[in-house]
Design a protein that fits this description.
The complex is a heterodimer of chains A (730) and B (52). By secondary structure, chain A is α+β, with helices and mostly antiparallel strands. The radius of gyration of chain A is 31 Å and the shape is elongated. In chain A, the strands form five sheets. Chain A has a seven-stranded mixed sheet, with helices on both faces. Helices cover 52% and strands 17% of the residues of chain A. Among the domains of chain A are: 27-106, Alpha-Beta Plaits (2-Layer Sandwich); 110-241 and 353-413 and 678-727, no CATH class; 454-559, Calcium-transporting ATPase, cytoplasmic domain N (3-Layer(aba) Sandwich), CATH 3.40.1110.10. Chain B is mainly alpha-helical. In chain B, 63% of the residues lie in helices and 0% in strands. Classes of the chains: A alpha+beta (730), B mainly alpha (52). The interface between A and B is medium-sized, with 25 and 23 residues.
Amino acid sequence: MASTYQPGISACPACDAAPMAEALAENGSAGAAGRLMLAVPGAHCGACISTIERTLEATPGVRSARVNLTLRRVTVDAAPSVTAESLIPVLAAAGYEAQELDATMLRPTETDRRSRELLMRLGVAGFAMMNVMLLSVAVWSGASDATRDMFHWISAAIALPVVAYAGQPFFVSAWTALKVRRLNMDVPISLAILLASGMSLAETMQGGEQAYFDAALSLTFFLLAGRWLDHRTRAAARSAAETLAALDVQRVTMADGRVVPQAELRPGDLVRVMPGARMPVDGIITEGASELDRSALTGESLPVGVEEGARVTAGETNLTGALTVRVTAAGKDSTLHRMADLVALAETARNRYTSLADRAARIYAPAVHLLAAAAFVFWFLSSGDARLALNIAVAVLIITCPCALGLAVPAVVTAASGRLYRHGLLIKNATALERLAEVDHVVFDKTGTLTLGRPVPDPLPDDPEALSVALALAEGSAHPLAQALAEAAQAAGVQAAALSDRVEVPGHGVQALWQGQEVRLGRAEWTGGDAARDGAGVQTTATWLQLPGRRLAFTFTDRLRPGAAEMVAELQARGLTVELLSGDSAGAVAAVAEQLGITDWQAGLLPEAKAARLAQLADEGRRVLMVGDGLNDTLALASAHASISPATALEAARVVSDVVLLGQSLAPIPDALRTARSATRRIVENFGLAATYNMIAVPLALAGLATPLAAALAMSSSSIMVSLNALRLR
Amino acid sequence: MQVLAWLIPVSLLLGGLGLAAFIWALRRGQFDDPEGDAQRFLTDDWDDHPRP
């Protein structure tokens, strides 16, 4: 998923170069034949593992199934006759929603491979560190002459190949940075590791007393640990985000009945879109009539009627009738993707955000190199001994090496992401926590974000006759309004009237014969009304019932998401300003704003207007958090200081968001802000700890008093302190 | 000091065994699903006999 790769850093800006290059090298190789992969987002406990595995293994043709709870997926080894699609209903029957992960989704195995590679380097470095430390302890406790030299030689034999192997991630990233004439955290790291090894080797050859092999190795080990933590946090977020992407349309039914992957569609193809499906492409309707839900694209909560010749856009949901659509643009050319490109532009602005780690590295790297150079010059001039001067300069580099700095950020981010993940929040971007912590203004979208995007009828009129006819008609339609009406009427104990010749007229409504006379349920103009007049009178979503001689409107409102009111109240109580920007009509927006106690709202906004409002807020110096779900929000999401989208959002919106909300409830949002603040505080504390330790150690090193033992002690203790501090996160 | 001639190879060998075990475990994918492994040992499945 190269396009969704979020450049982000903890301790090193250029570590990103490696995975990026890797993403380019990936070619989406599919798994071995007969191996299927399914995402099971609902799996969360030990019992889930047994249930899923047992259910799958009881299915004919399945040889074995194995759940990976960390990634929430299951790998199935099955006979070629078994397809992933046939397993989805099996899992659904067991109570687990599942999605097929296609070839492109299998790419995370590449991420796994990288994670394994890091773990391997970490293990090798750890092994070598312990062995060399063992020998070093002997040297520190008084081994001398031939024994000491032998120990040094054995240490060298272990340390040099291990440093060459385990240190590669740092060397590669430092080299990439240097090639473009930049300094990153990995430059001083690589320099310290290489110089420590080289100087120790030279000392060993000359029978010298001090060798820093253990320091070179423990440096590698601790820094690799930080890097591995960092990688794991991001890999988990990435794989979950990719799982969400699997929700989007992947297979498309052609007009002749063939089912093809979406990627194979070409302009001119005829595609069939059934009611309830999301439009996979941009196109023109060649056959059929229906109503489209455009809320994801425009924020309008009212469905729009369409018929032959009308233009449709990818991302709209088809509501009532089956449509045949001639493709005008598919895949990368569709509006959905062009919008995504626009968004990418806005996003680069946000990627220019410099993280705390970056800012620290920017001060740190030059300072360390200057110090070491100054130490060398001073000691060379004052003693005239180049070897002594070099030893002291290297000791300065080793002792200041950002062991604690390398762990300061990843340790905290890992702790915070894990905590938020358990609360149903997925942190996608490495700097998201820091940006969330700075937020002082929150902007919400309405449809699908504050509301569920699902209509619920207002209290039903007290008219048993009309209700029973309406129920009977509504039962004949898959339209969301009709279904919601039928549900509400059934709940109220209404008995359906006896109808005959019930037919659904796609794009208009349902009609039938009741006591020999025609009755209709559907759009205003189709039920004998006048669109202009009715539209003016009724601001909200409505469906009309036409009975012999009279008409009746059922109005609907969108229900608020659970936790929405509490969340807004909590945000306001904490002094954040809350604003509502929607593309929907003023009446609907005002109602929601009033319910939630939001005084600041604007309705009928185009995507550009939303982004413009955010730019205006940014100019006023506000740090804005944007929460939205639709395509019309993507531009705003990308240009906001930080952004959150619900899991039900369109892929384009999720991709640009820093945080994805996995559950239905909005309640975790204030929690996320709180955790982000305390995480940032911990990161700053960690930098403080690392700085304190340097303030003690650097003068010692400059004075030529640093020994390998002091370096080893300082390095381990500061790393452990920083990790423990990260665990204090609440 | 003669004992060193024995002890050093022995310590390296033992460390090497540990490393080999780690590499084996890593290759077999034992670190791929830490969360699942933490849950798996609590279940009763395959308690009587190993998974075929």
